[in-house]
Each structure stands twice: as C-alpha cells, then as structure tokens.
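for the record, two folds in this file. i put them one after another cuz i was lazy. first one right below, seq on top, structure tokens after. the second one comes after a little note so u can tell where it starts
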Amino acid sequence: MKVQKCINCGTQFRYKSVQKSIWAGYKPIICFNCGAIHEFRFVYRLVVSVIIVLPIFFNQWISDIAPSLLVHAAMYFGYLLAAIGVMPYLIRYRLKNNNLE
C-alpha cells in the first residue's frame, strides 16, 4: 500500500501533501515534478467520513469493554491517530479535466 503517484509522470505524492489536502477541505494536489493537478475523487470523501465517524457506531461496545472513562478516551484517541496515519495510503486522486498536458 503506497501513497498514490502522479498519473502523468509517475512521481509519488508526498505523504505530507496528501495529509494537507485531506485536512484542508479536499484541496487538489499539484505534482511537484510536472505540475499536473489531481483532484480528490468523491467516493474517497465518503471513505474519509466513514473512517472518522466509525467509532460512534461502536460506542456501546467500546463502553462495555473500557473499564474507565480514561481508557475509553484513550481508545478513541488511538483510533483517530491510526485513522489519520492510514488515510493518505487509502485515498486516490484523479487527474483534473482541464489540465494542459
């Protein structure tokens, strides 16, 4: 599982630039090698939303296994850190239509 590469030149996007793109409102990524603009695919916006909201659906189960509020909060925090760390590897971009190639 790798961070996506540029569709034009094959240069791999930087992990940091994909993270910034996700947390800055799904901004497009510009390839630093060829200048091609890649935009966020809509289906991956749903993927990001589901990943972030997923613990809410398991709240009762997590409450049952967590002996205290501190452990409960630590489990959520750990999940969020893991989700944020994995997202750049899951997200895929497409080449923007009006690129000059």
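(here's the note) second protein begins now
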Amino acid sequence: MTNMRGAQLRFKDEGRYITIIKGRKLTRSDIIALINEAQRRNMIVDLSGRDLSGLDLSGLSLGRANISNVNLSRANLSNSTLFNANLSHSNLSGANLTHADFSYVDLSTASIVGSSMANAILFKTVMS
C-alpha cells in the first residue's frame, strides 16, 4: 500500500499485472502512484475497463500497460509513452494525443475520432 496525501491506495496483483483498488474515478495522482508501484514491483500497469475521460495524463509513461476497454475521451495524453500498450476497444475520441508514442500499438479497434495526433510517433502502429 502507498500513502498519498493521507489517502490509502490499495493495489491488487494479478499475475504480471498490477491494478489499483478504488471505487471512484481515478485521478492523475492515483495513476502516477500505480505507475510507481508497478515499477517498484517490476509489474505491468492494468487500467482496463476504467473511465479516465477528461484526465490530464500528459507526459506519463504507460508503456506495455493494459489500457483496453478504457474511456479516454477528451483526455490529455500529449507527450505520453504508450509503447506496446494494449489499447484495444478503448475510446480516445477527442483526446489530445500530440507527440505521444504509440509505437507497436494496435489502434485498429480503438475509437480515435476527433482526436489530435499531430507529431505522434506511430512506428509499427496498426490503425485499421
């Protein structure tokens, strides 16, 4: 467990993956704590099925993370690293994806309508 500003965050190990146990919507600080805990335990971040709409996730490193079936509509992912992340069936509509690294990501089942991908890195990214 990690203590962030007096609030206890609990993490759950699921094989190679680690997720955060929290009933309400996650915040940027929750996700940063999860990334730090995953690095400490040498595990992969699991945010699958979460509602992260409208969050500022700019500059975060979410490489290899499981971000499948996630609502990221209107989120700010600019300058984020999503190298080899699983974004299948995620909603990125209207998201700011400028300068984000999507190398080796399969976006073929993700919704990216209305998102800004200016200067995004799309090396070996599957788009359709």
